[in-house]
Amino acid sequence: MVLGEKLWEGKGKTDGPGFIKYVGMEGVASTYSWSAQLKGMGRAKGVDINIHATGKSWMVPKGVGKAKDQAVFMTASGDMGAVKGFALSKMVQNKPSAVSLWHFMTSSEKLSWMNDIIAVVSYESVDPRWMELNLTVYEWK
Questions:
Q1: Does position 2 have pLDDT exceeding 80, yes or no?
Q2: Measured between alpha carbons, how far is 20 from 30 in angstroms, rounded to an integer?
Q3: Which tens digit of pLDDT belongs to each residue from 16-37?
Q4: How far is CA 96 from the centre of its chain?
Q5: What is the CATH number of the domain that holds 47?
Q6: Cα 122 from Cα 103, distance rounded (Å)
Q7: Residue 135's closest CA among 62, 69, 63, 79?
Q8: CA-based angle 5:50:48, to the nearest 5?
Q9: How far apart are CA 111 and CA 28, in angstroms?
Q10: Taking residues 128-139, what's their average pLDDT?
């Protein structure tokens, strides 16, 4: 796997409390939402986006968790689109971190290049509960 250029980076935050869907011996399933402001660079220079996501996660008592996200994004000029993502997460020194694959969908002519890429996203939580996070988005070549 080869990472291409960095497309966006920024900060995000949880939008509020998540909802627990299931608790069992194999772990906890929950829903959540988050928002982020991402600054464009490289191929995405000048394409700063605000993104709002909801997702479902499955966390095991110890080990790797998984999640599915869906999101909408908007640029300052009003261009819009959607994102679908699939993530894996783990604890690193008492802070969660995650990596995700994103696929973009937009009808904007200006952003049509996004429809042809898959992005690799790195999430680093600032705190142990994902209240604030740093995101870095790379094109997957």
A1: no
A2: 4
A3: 888 999 999 989 999 999 999 9
A4: 14
A5: 2.40.160.20
A6: 14
A7: 69
A8: 45
A9: 37
A10: 93
- Identity at 24, one-letter amino acid code: G
pTM of the predicted model as reported, rounded to 2 decimal places = 0.92
Nearest CA among 89, 70, 92 for reference residue 81: 70
* Total tally of structural domains belonging to the chain: 1
Between the alpha carbon of residue 52 and those of residues 25, 32, 34, 82, 94, the distances in Å are 31, 11, 6, 10, 26
Question: Are the beta carbons of 66 and 88 closer than 8 angstroms?
Answer: yes
Q: How far apart are CA 52 and CA 68, in angstroms?
A: 14
Output the pLDDT for position 63.
79
**Residue span of the structural domain in which 106 resides:** 3-140
Residue 17 structure tokens: 């409390």
State pLDDT tens for residues 45-104: 999 999 999 999 999 887 799 999 999 999 999 999 999 999 999 987 778 899 999 999
Paired tokens of 21: 């869907």
Nearest CA to 85 among 99, 75, 73? 99
- Which two three-digit tokens encode residue 113? 């290049």
